[in-house]
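[job 4471] stage=fold_predict status=RUNNING
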Amino acid sequence: MKKTLFALAALGALSGVANAQSSVTVYGIIDEGLTGGNTQSANGGAVNTANGVVKTTGLGFTSGNQSTSRIGFKGSEDLGGGMSAFFTYEIKMDNDNTLGLSTARQAFVGVKKNGLGSIAAGTQNTPVYDAVLASDPGGVNNIAGNLVTTSFKGPQGGLVTNSGVMTNQPYATRLANTASFKTDNFSGFTARALILATGANATETTTNTSSVAGVGGAGQVKTSDGVTTQNSSNNQSGYGIGVDYTWHKLMLTANYQGFKATSNSNVLTTAQTIFSPGGVTTAAVNVQDTNQYYAANYDFGILKAYAQYINRKMANDVNSSFFSKYTAQQIGVRSYVTPTIEAFASAAQGKYSAYPSITGTNGSTTFTPGSARLNAFQIGSNYWLSKRTNLYAIYGQTATSNYNYTSASSNTISYNQNNYSVGVRHTF
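[job 4471] inference complete, writing structure tokens
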């Protein structure tokens, strides 16, 4: 009897240790505010002047203005010997949608070794996005006026594609089908790397009643001796690297990422939709997406100063002379005016060259658009009711000027947008 009681006590103790070694945390953000603004486009020159100025306005309650609303689950388990397993599953939420939950933002699992680093696989942030999260004066909010993280909120809608400031134009935020490695801190240095690898290849063989030898175009159709073989492929690949250095109150970051989507369709298509900002790699359309991001910030005590530079080029893999290009440089500050009132501001300039309009498999160019100059600024403030809850007010403006819409005419188009939001955000 005593032995039985002792065994049960020992089992209970071991069970308690096991429970202590594993933990799961539920976290999230709920953000809702009154949001509005307007967009405006104007045609210049002798062409299309009859259209005049086109203006849209809007006002209404929207979700995720300062931070995208989300719910997530993350956990870790101590494996012993400095090893641990971990996971994260995070879903976007829309407060103004009856369905509530939306797309997966992050979903990965991995292992970590203390003193070395971690490896993980799944849907993850790109190195550039991780760096922007740590070095943006506006905290990567979703209001217009930031040229490193282009976005907008409100019923008025966003600017047209030609403006150069579409939502998340400067970088891909996160990708599925990735593996990552992140180091621990070594004398102020940390590094991260991401590998993208996914492919779908198929060969279909059919027997024909008649035989015609030859090779088809798209799809690589081959016919010989009454047998037709058709190959199809759809592959995405690439990598990203980032290095951060922290010394006292100074933080520096340098990042590069290059992703490629290929298929055997061998056609020229619009490069704009290759790696979507929503987080899931889109179908291959023969495009190379390269991205650089550099930033620095320094904490002066009374305020924190920021400097950022970003460059992105998306070129067609069939013909690299067809591409779109985006560059921007931005400075900003962030400071606590009082222990509960925080203020931030940023100003930026940039340049955007749109993807040319092309037709046909061989890529006949309808027109090659010129480069647009970009200007933007944003100001905002937080009133902290507690460590988890704050009221916010954010205002931003973006402007695009001297955009040559067609190479056959001298008219230019300007696009302007102002965007604001006041609301409340709670984190848990």
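[job 4471] summary: The radius of gyration is 26 Å.
[job 4471] exit 0
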